[in-house]
Metallophosphoesterase
Amino acid sequence: MVIRIAAVGDVHMDEDVVGRFRPALDELPRHAEALLLAGDLTRHGTESEARCVAREFGGLGVPVVTVLGNHEYQCDQVPQVVKVLEDAGITVLEGDGVVLECTGGRLGIAGVKGFGGGFAGRCASDFGEPEMKAFVRTTTESADALGAALRGLDCDVLVALTHYSPVPDTLAGEPLEIYPFLGSYQLGQAIDSAPTALALHGHAHHGSERGTTPGGVRVRNVAHPVIKQAYSVFELGDHVD
Ligand SMILES: [Fe+2]
């Protein structure tokens, strides 16, 4: 059996964007059984922008599951943003997961925003100033939460959802100098610690679509500027692309 899911990230909603995605979203239930959003739903993380997200992505007829992005933190209104999204029926993950009953089986989704830190051989280390240790600790705690959430789900197909990237592959196109601010290898290790079928992320607007974790899990950057469509559809189960 096959489960089809749709995904997009970095839609950066505000009043001027409302309606742009809706025609394609109205068609979504014909193509997929769930929509996953990879964070950066808003521009500055305000409650009014969150209401735009709710109008655009609420009431689709399929479950909508999201993680937050760094933009959702800009105005210190995270609790208000989460409440608006949840009131619209959108499931917000941060260090936890959800299992959806799909026609092809039970789809497990574990999510965290994630954080930066960099990749093997070119990463921040837990050494020196307290500020640097706090930076690395943020990444480590986020990755640990993702790994625990992934391993804790009882499902047939497992998907990891983050905003920051777990691999450098999908950052190709971004300046090398900012890779440490776009993702962390620790997220990739977390994904590889469970039988993950697919890892989805956003954040890297100038990155690339396809990558693979060291453990062989396919990674897809679904940032809207990368996929250049309202959402991409992925097949999970017996047949994968
Ligand atoms: Fe971002």
Summary: The pocket of fe (ii) ion is lined by residues 40, 69-71, 163, 203 (CB under 6 Å). The radius of gyration is 17 Å.
